[in-house]
Design a protein that fits this description.
By secondary structure, the protein is α+β, with helices and mostly antiparallel strands. The chain has one domain. About 25% of the residues lie in helices and about 35% in strands. Strands 1-2 form a two-stranded antiparallel sheet. A hairpin with a 2-residue loop joins strand 3 and strand 4. The N and C termini lie far apart (about 50 Å).
């Protein structure tokens, strides 16, 4: 189980997007094939400091909320 958790945590953004679109992903763990479905995991988004992030399905929008001198009060 720990090896599966490590493999899932190491997934890249393109791998996660593919997983979400096809609803399954296969890993090779210690020489054995492990197949996961979306029902097996919980995919969450984390905020980026200084950004406001929202998503709806496959659409994600990030807004830089840093106030600069260029913005009038």
């Amino acid at each position: 189980m720990k090896e599966i958790s490590t493999a899932v945590s190491a997934m890249t953004q393109p791998e996660i997007l593919s997983f979400e679109s096809v609803s399954n992903h296969s890993f090779t763990i210690n020489g054995s094939s492990v197949d996961l479905t979306l029902e097996d995991v919980e995919i969450i988004s984390e905020d980026i400091p200084g950004w406001q992030v929202a998503n709806d399905g496959k659409l994600t929008v990030a807004l830089d909320i840093t106030v600069t001198d260029d913005l009038p009060e």
